[in-house]
Amino acid sequence: MGIAAEALKDFNGFNPKKLPEGEPLSPGHRACQGCGEILALRQVMKALGSNVIVASATGCMEIVTSPFPQTAWRVPWIHVAFENAAAVISGVESAYKVLNRKGRIHQPDVVFLAYAGDGGTADIGLQALSGALERGHNFVYVCLDNEAYMNTGIQRSSATPYGAMTTTSPPGKKSIGQRTWKKNVAAIAAAHGIPYVATASPAYALDLMNKVKKAAMVPGPAYLHIYSPCPTGWRYPTDLTVEVARLAVQSKVFPLYEVIDGQWILSRKIAKPKPVSEYLKLQRRFRHLTETEIERIQARVDAEYEELLKRCVTPEKEGKASKETEE
Amino acid sequence: MGKRVGMEVSIAAAEMVGLCDVDVIAAYPITPQTHIVEHLSELVADGHLDAEFIPVESEHSAMSTCVGAAAAGARTFTSTSSQGYALMAEICYIASSLRLPIVMAVVNRALSAPISIWNDHADLMMSRDTGWIQTVAENGQEVVDLLLHAFRVAEDHRVLLPAIVNLDGFTLSHMIEPVLLPDEDEVKRYLPPYRPRLRLDPEKPMTFGPVGMPEVYTEVKKAQDEAFKASYPVIVETWDEFAKVFGRRYRPVETYKSEDADVIILTMGSTSETAMTAVDKMRAEGKKVGLVRLRLWRPFPFDELYQALKGAGAVAVMDRAMGFSGGAGPVCTEVKACLYDRAFYPYIQNYVAGLGGRDITVENFEEIHDKLVASMKRGDPMGYEIINVRE
Ligand SMILES: Cc1ncc(C[n+]2csc(CCOP(=O)(O)OP(=O)(O)O)c2C)c(N)n1
Ligand code: SF4
Known about the structure:
Chain B: One of its GO terms (biological process) is carboxylic acid metabolic process. The structure holds two protein chains of two kinds. Chain A is an alpha/beta fold.
């Protein structure tokens, strides 16, 4: 049995009727209405509880939760810079390790969480993340993927999907918007051979929270890639966040899976996928796309999903795993 | 009792850090700093030092990891040089603003381009406004003593600022010198166990590093500046206490035969020993010349420096780095700023020497002296000159 499987053998999932009551991330932050990142982060923190130390990268979630002298954090939280959340948590985790060993503190069960946006993860922070994963620190890393640099005004990142409009990938006579396909950071994390990797979505809250719990339970590094729609940057009405997030899963644009000890496991199989166009048309960032471009995106999504299926050892049947994932 | 050893200065530095019971070391290799962290990793590997040695993937992460570790309540050390220091710089500002008492040895080396692994003070000058306490060592003994002092002063609850000990690359870091290494008990007598004032602790949650809106940023910087200025008397006080334990007395400014000197040469770092030899030689020839050396670079010792220079008619300030201000090198700029509002103002010329590892010799100091006297006689405007340039 691998180390993750070993650690998870008595795993108890969250119960939909009785969720943790604590809110380590308090209301009263300043995120936009309908923000998918703050929704996901709230679910993450609910799942982790209060015995946790959090390192934040610069980005929307840092700015909206910590305008001095206010803070939305009821747990210890540190922000240092944009690209180094994984390195900062490495230091915190190492400090706890040595201070416990030397008997200066007695706090062996603290959970260490680092989080960043897709910019702070897929681009400028990728090196620090890779270093920390490779060194094997015991921490959970969460990428809150809203597919662009939102904090600085909706600029493209390497996680921005093909064709999307951002302020640095504007569509024009000679441009369709973002020219490149989304970087697959979850696969990059998995390639480090760490015990636990998963993708999650706040539209599937129980699934997300269970994955967070698992990530915290496994010894060593765990990586969670959380799809986090942003009404401000994606240009959709603020009440559609959960809908957009769910459509992304149902259209196979953002499949949910886990990689446990290197074994890929689909969280739910999408047997009757919705067309990608349905997902795209809700968001004005894709408004300029032609039929041909949409077909191209559909073909790519289908191909990537097929690739994922091939990787997965135990693709779950639709409906089975979804007991847990469907709300 | 401590022991007298003949040791490469880098190794002695690492031994000293080990004696300080450091908890976390995060580092990345760069010449000429490598021997320090290599030896620390050996101490950890052999079980002589109970610490987490974190071989990070870059200097940026080294400093970031140190910030995380120090915020979590660990005594934290790192070391770097030149390009690595430049890569770290972003986080160096943050470490001092967060008031984290990280200690770092900077083995001074020229900055690219052209790439040069040899010594000058370009990296030291690049970081002068990062808000770290900075001392500059002259020899191996100072490296060791200043490192111990750095932990003591940085962690003092009246200070809580990170501290750097600068030492010249190769010409000091790679020399084998006789060094008095204290023993564990002596170190314990001088350096109490690290007690952080605030730490990341789930039992007492606190927010570190929040956003500073325009309404608070200025106030935070003022508070940081006040803490920085307030560190000065503590630096001096903890040096005085060092003298009580170890018998070696340190001051922010060091003088050598300068009391009655007409001409003063002002240096910083390991060239000061060469300068002393030059002073002795010129004194023997009847020239009334003396040496003033800066040991404390940040906070800058304005009063002590004034006291040391006030009797002289002319001062030659030596810089080991380019200023690119068009006016003077960085040390000279500070010296002039220090003297500007005093009742007296000596004649000052600035000489830039020893860039990218070029030797600074006794003859260079004689040349500086003679040039200074000649320009004063001619009444040249005060300026700067790069000496020892091959034409
Ligand atoms: C070294 C550095 N470069 C650039 C920035 C400016 N910056 C701050 S946040 C940010 C974008 C954050 O985007 P992302 O990580 O995707 O998070 P989001 O705001 O979308 O949640 C940028 C470019 C910075 N703070 N530091
Ligand atoms: S811009 Fe987007 S990610 Fe940022 S706070 Fe607003 S909704 Fe959330």
